[in-house]
Amino acid sequence: MTETTVKSARTYIIKVTGYGSGGEGVARLEDGRAVFIRGAARGDVLEIKLTKELQRSARAEITGILEPSPYRIEPDCPYYPECGGCDFRHITYEEELDAKLQRVNDAILRVGGLPIRAGGILRTGKTGGYRNKVVFHSDGVSTGFYRSRSHEIIRIDRCLLLKDDLNNAVKNLKGGGEKTLRSGRNGLEQPLEEELDGLVYGISGFFQINTGAALLLFNKAREYAAMQKDEVLVDLYCGVGSLTLFAGRDAGFAIGVERDSAAVEAARENARRNGLSYIEFVNADAEKWETDIANPECVIVDPPRSGLTPGAVRKIICLSPERIVYVSCDPATLARDLRALSGYDVKELCAVDMFPRTANVECCCLLNKR
Questions:
Q1: Domains of the chain, with CATH numbers?
Q2: Residue 341 has what pLDDT?
Q3: Residue of 238, 329, 350, 365 marked catalytic
């Protein structure tokens, strides 16, 4: 579909009725097209100018706030909205949670065609100081984050999302380029560790960036998995084994499958660290993994944002578990995959606010075999 950059100075008056998947306010133009406006709030009456046009939609910027939404607040960050790290600092947190819950339920209904809804969204109540990982960019003069939708660096003295030790560390960074910093329960020391409900993990490779919210998510996944000591758990896309160990400790046997060999070694070390000898890990692609395991009681999947490949869907159906626990960072691909998992019904659905003040939302759902 052809995209057109708009150079006209014409403005429009619109009322914002909801939010897009990226956190933008959504309204309708006179011709029926949806228009997406960054920094808009549900209920705003705005003057806008179009910046991009498609046949069925457009993007716009705010040129005037005629009637502010009752959910609109003054942003508490001096870099917002120029910095691209946050999406919702201009609205109340409760409105943000409503927007995320609506996004999840809309995707499940419209993409998945499923009537089930998430009744609420789990959150820690902490909207700042939660990030344990950050990627800084530097041009040798300024260190900070990219401006929204560009590679221009905005100097950041303190980010409200970061843990204090990460904010303090940026003051000592030197040189240009990209710099990744992590923080664990033992600060910025190496090797880094994190603890979740008595399990200690070495942080190498992927690990959830919000430890408090990760505990909420993992507890929900463990509840859905409902493993017993005479049961088998399979975790596809297991990464460094965080969720495999968390839910698998209740099982008689658990195995995690991961194609990244470094992550598999880290997962095996995490199993040894926690004395879970009945949990194993294999280096294989989820859809090509060859196994003698048949009919495990539960399969957990936590795929990348793109969701399950068709081959992975076939593998899960072939394994024929009694239960599937699906953890997702994208409601749309989750909904698509739930529809593709034939022979299973979605019994429970939960949303988790893993990334407060951003548009991202995490989901966890339970499917039972018919």
A1: 4-67 (2.40.50.140), 97-126+193-369 (3.40.50.150)
A2: 97
A3: 329
